[in-house]
Write a structure and sequence with these properties.
- Residues 47-105 are annotated as: Disordered.
- Keywords: DNA-binding, Nucleus, Transcription, Transcription regulation.
- One of its GO terms (cellular component) is nucleus.
- GO terms for molecular function: DNA binding; DNA-binding transcription factor activity.
- By secondary structure, the chain is mainly α.
- It folds into 2 domains: 1-49; 56-88, no CATH class.
- The chain has 3 helices and 2 strands; from the N terminus they run ββααα.
- The protein has helices at 16-43, 54-62, 74-104; strands spanning 2-3, 12-13.
- It has a two-stranded antiparallel sheet with strand order 1-2.
- A hairpin with an 8-residue loop joins strand 1 (2-3) and strand 2.
- The longest helix has 31 residues, at 74-104.
- It starts with a strand and ends with a helix.
- The mean pLDDT is 79.
Length: 105
């Protein structure tokens, strides 16, 4: 049996059982491709694009986690973000004060 390859490659000779299995795989691949296209049309989500999930990854990285790596509940996460913002503001104020002191000297 001959299996025709893509890109103008010469055909490969395989056993009849292998050939029937190759044909089944091709059919299944086509079915999955059609289902994926339908899902993309319905949801508007491009499953083949790795950048489509990038925003989700960025948002997950910003969320707070406990010592075991699990996400914190929203309330604790908001409290943690507020504490971080306060610490950043304090650090900025200290840096500004140090810069002013250096400029005066």
């Amino acid at each position: 049996m001959e299996v025709f390859a893509k890109d103008n490659q010469p055909p490969r000779f395989v056993n009849p059982k292998q050939y029937s299995r190759i044909l089944k795989r091709r059919e299944e691949r086509q079915k999955l491709f059609k289902l994926q296209l339908e899902a993309e049309l319905i949801t508007g989500f491009d499953f083949s694009n790795p950048r489509s999930r990038q925003r989700r990854i960025e948002q997950a990285n910003k969320r707070g986690r406990d010592q075991h790596g699990r996400f914190l509940p929203k309330i604790q996460n908001q409290n943690q973000n507020q504490n971080q913002n306060q610490n950043e503001n304090q650090n900025q104020n200290q840096n500004q004060n140090q810069n002013q002191n250096q400029n005066q000297n």
